[in-house]
C-alpha cells in the first residue's frame, strides 16, 4: 500500500510502502469499543467510598423494646432505613481494571490505524525535528496543512524542540511510538506518523 510522504513545510517527500496487514484491515467497531473500555477502566481511580452499616458511628443498643410501642421493630440506630444510617450496596474502594489478551490489544491497534487509513485521515511526514522551539511558527505550519485536531506519533523519542513548541497548541497531542494507543488515536481527527514511527509500529505489530 503506497502512501505519500510530506514535510511540515507542506512539500512532497516521496512515498512510503505501508504493510497491508497493519494498515489495510477492515474496521471493527466491536474491537475498538473493547479496547477503549479497557483503557478507560484502567484509568479509573476507584477511590469512591460510602459507609456501610458497620462503619457508621452510632450505638448498637436496641432503640426500644420489641413489642408494645406501636412502632416498627428496630434493632439499631445504624440501619439503612434510618436517617444517618449506613448505605446498602454503595460504592467501595476497588480496582476497575480488567484483563484483555495481547492478541486483542494488538488487533485493536492495527484496526485503529486501518480505520484512519480508510477515512483518509492518516498522514505520513518525513520527520518533525525543529531547530528552535517556536510555537507561533509551528501553529502557522499546522494551519497551512489543515491540522486542527491531530495526534502526532514520532519514533523512539520525540524531538525536544518540537515537543516544547507544540505544548501550547490546543487539540494537538504528541507521543513516542511506544505510547501509541487506540484511545488517543480515535479521540483526534487526524493521525500523523513520522517515517520512524511507521517503521517502529510495523516492527512492533508484525
UniProtKB/TrEMBL annotation:
Indicate the family of this protein.
Belongs to the universal ribosomal protein uL4 family.
HAMAP family according to UniProt: Ribosomal_uL4_B
The record's PANTHER family line, in alphabetical order, gives: 50S RIBOSOMAL PROTEIN L4, LARGE RIBOSOMAL SUBUNIT PROTEIN UL4M
Biological processes, Gene Ontology terms: translation
Q: What is this protein called?
A: Large ribosomal subunit protein uL4
Query: Which GO molecular function annotation, any one, does this entry have?
Result: rRNA binding
InterPro entries per the record? Ribosomal_uL4, Ribosomal_uL4-like, Ribosomal_uL4_dom_sf
What GO CC terms are in its UniProt record?
A: ribonucleoprotein complex; ribosome
Gene that this polypeptide is encoded by: rplD
List UniProt keywords, sorted A-Z: Ribonucleoprotein, Ribosomal protein, RNA-binding, rRNA-binding
